[in-house]
Amino acid sequence: MTDFKTLPASGPYRLDNITIPACLLGQGGGLVRHALSVEGGRLSDRRDMPTLDMGGAMVLPCFIDMHTHLDKGHIWPRSPNPDGSFMGALETVGADRVANWTAEDIATRMDFALRCAYAHGTRAIRTHIDSIAPQDAISWPIFGALRAEWAGRIALQGASLTGVDRADMTGEYARTADIVAEHGGVLGLVTYPVPDLRDKLRGFFKLAMDRGLEVDFHADETADPSATTLRVIAETVLELGYQGAVSVGHCCSLAVQPEGEVYETLDLVARAGLNIVSLPMCNMYLQDRASGRTPRWRGVTLVHEMKARGINVSFASDNTRDPFYAYGDLDMLEVLREATRIAHLDHADPDWITAFLSNPARACGFEMPSLEAGAPADLVILRARNWGEALSRPQSDRIVLRAGRAIDRTLPDHAELDHLMTGR
Fold it and tell me: One GO MF term, please (predicted)?
């Protein structure tokens, strides 16, 4: 494959003999050979330009990562999960937030994470932001400043995050909703079984509708089959006639519920037009974990059954080097590789790549990734000619083009964060 140093530093050029998933060209089938022309930072129809033979290298649009937690990222060295459990993560993050989440701490860690994502080839991110007062008044202005600073490199969206039992829909969380609206964000909520769930959801949607906000949920991130809040969310959307985009992440408990109940829920989700995002790496790390016992399931939701019903399904990174997930680097190619293995995306429909590109863009309203003429020449080029080669290695030598030019893919050194890791 052509080395990035040989790609033109200026002027138009044509990438010939490349491999592209047919679905990204609006075609059926698997992988096809193709060519792409780059001119003025965008893809072009022109053919009369210097041509590079790419030797069959796979080319994809830059990725969309629709579910992350940039404000939590990279705190593991100072606040590791004591037992790897979900409750261990909740308690550890809560203590770290109170002790350490100053404006400087959050801004430094979020910027570090964005530099990683950019180097790996991500062009848009939605991050959840812990919004329990008074943290909301600290974190949202930092997010706003970073969104402006990163404009043109990574498009950023923010979604508030608080547990349903802590959200006072007529008091404190209404004030949080005002902060979210002020920063052009998305209203978020973590749902789990509580006695007044339907009333709380009605109040939550009223906050969103009064402010013209879209919504994003964490739902049923548990192996408890009695956790059926996804169904209640869908029913509430249909009851209220809510017209904004609704995204729901995790939905792990579907995999341990009776099939008849599951299919009824998924039919409701399809009718309500919900967007679902699966977080396979984090959920496999947390779910079904018990000391001295081998996990019995993978923790992921029912993505194949959802896709078969026309539900818009995406995959995303979720947490990075924090108590909810000890690893990761906001590398969507890693998410693609692991999701393929964990959720058996191979030997299935050949268009699953859209769950990392157009599906999350549609869910969030980001600019749609495209390989059509006129689209930004924001591309990821892999030293691989097929999926077997692409997913067998980390592709650490990938080329990332932004506006048609290869970027410096040097990753930031974790040592940059050492001064934040002593705690306070």
Answer: isoguanine deaminase activity
Which residues neighbour 94 within 8 Å (Cβ) at sequence distance 6 or greater?
A: none
Given the residues 104, 172, 221, 367, select the one marked as catalytic.
221
Q: Which tokens hold the place of 199?
A: 């009333």
- CA–CA separation, 321 vs 73, rounded Å? 6
Closest CA to 133 of 181, 168, 86, 182: 168
**Cα dihedral 192/272/122/71 (nearest 10):** -30
Is residue 314 a contact partner of residue 295, using CB atoms and an 8 Å limit? Answer: no
Query: What is the spatial distance between Cα 326 and Cα 153, in angstroms, rounded to a whole number?
Result: 26
Q: Please say if 214 is a catalytic residue.
A: no
Partnered with residue 19 across adjacent β-strands are 33, 58
CATH code 3.20.20.140 region(s) in the chain: 63-364
Read off the amino acid at residue 32: V
242 by DSSP, 3-state: which?
coil
Neighbours of 226 (CB within 10 A): 10
One digit per residue, the tens of pLDDT, for the chain of length 424 reads: 555 557 888 899 999 999 999 999 999 999 999 999 999 999 999 999 999 999 999 999 999 999 999 999 999 999 999 999 999 999 999 999 999 999 999 999 999 999 999 999 999 999 999 999 999 999 999 999 999 999 999 999 999 999 998 777 878 899 999 999 999 999 999 999 999 999 999 999 999 999 999 999 999 999 999 999 999 999 999 999 999 999 999 999 999 999 999 999 999 999 999 999 999 999 999 999 999 999 999 999 999 999 999 999 999 999 999 999 999 999 999 999 999 999 999 999 999 999 999 999 999 999 999 999 999 999 999 999 999 999 999 999 999 999 999 999 999 999 999 999 985 4
Q: Which superfamily does CATH assign the domain made up of 63-364 to?
A: Metal-dependent hydrolases (3.20.20.140)
CB 270 within 8 A of CB 307: no
Domain 4-61+370-406 has CATH 3.60.20.30: no
pTM of the model: 0.97
